[in-house]
Amino acid sequence: MSSRYLVRFDDLCPTMNWDVWSRVERAMLSRMVRPILAVVPDNRDPHLDVQPARADFWEQVRHWQRRGWTIALHGYQHRYVNQNSGIIGRNAYSEFAGLTEAEQDRKIAAGLKIFESQGVRADAWVAPAHSFDQTTLRVLARHGIKNVSDGYALRPHKDAAGCVWTPQQIGRFIDMPAGLWTVCMHFNSWKESDLLAFETSLKRFEDRIIPFPDAVREGETRKASWADSAFATSFRAVRRMRSVMPCA
To answer: pLDDT, tens digit, for every residue of 31-64?
Structure first.
């Protein structure tokens, strides 16, 4: 099977970079790309205060969801409270991993309440900094969320608890021979060169970009294989090597 791709954008909130986003949105519409949009319910992270808040933010979110774009719950307030890297082990800071079940439930319930009050459905979970733990997954399942965009694997799969994992491995489009690859992008700091690279990539890869529901359907019928486990081990090893190697 040839490689396929999912497009994911993180950190959508009222104070995001609307100038950049307008061009990103136009590019995706022109190629009929249906992305995953990770929306922060109640942003309290000053790093995401890029432009003045748009009063119509939630109307925009509802509009994206009506288009068939996937809206993911991106934590609660995007505030890191500890140095726990969680089960993914990607970043040593977290809004959720390591907290009590009661505290995680409070945050997730509060985020979902905001979504509900705005008429928005949470189609998936995207953890800030990729950091969450088994307690997070248990709380999410209790609230009806069993789709996770994260983890290292070659293809989507369902775990023993019934959670469907759609892997997220790369931050830009790379030509891969096989597998399903989620390209996770953070557009708030993009410059003209980043926009041009994104537009070029969409044109090049558009025939291989699929929507999130297609990946979930595949994952519903598949368990993780030895190849997924081997890939995850190798991928983590490569990331660790890159983090300790000095820059040239």
So the answer is: 999 999 999 999 999 999 999 999 999 999 999 9
Which residue, 213, 70, 214, 220, is CA-closest to 159? 220
Whether 187 contacts 38, CB under 8 Å? no
Residue 194's SS3 state is: helix
Q: Kindly tell me if the per-residue pLDDT of 2 is higher than 90.
A: no
Fill in the amino acid letter for 2: S
- Measured CA to CA, the distance from residue 94 to residue 109 in angstroms comes to 18
Report the alpha-carbon distance of residue 162 to residue 177 in Å, rounded. 29
Radius of gyration of the chain (CA): 17
What is 4-244's CATH number, 1.10.760.10, 2.40.10.10, 1.20.1600.10, 3.20.20.370? Answer: 3.20.20.370
**Cβ(72)–Cβ(124) under 8 Å?**
yes
Among candidate residues 103, 180, 99, 105, the one with its CA nearest the CA of residue 145: 105
What span, in angstroms and rounded, lies between the C-alpha atoms of 159 and 151? 12
Record the tokens describing residue 68, joined without a space. Answer: 């068939």
Asked whether the predicted pLDDT for residue 240 surpasses 80, the reply is: no
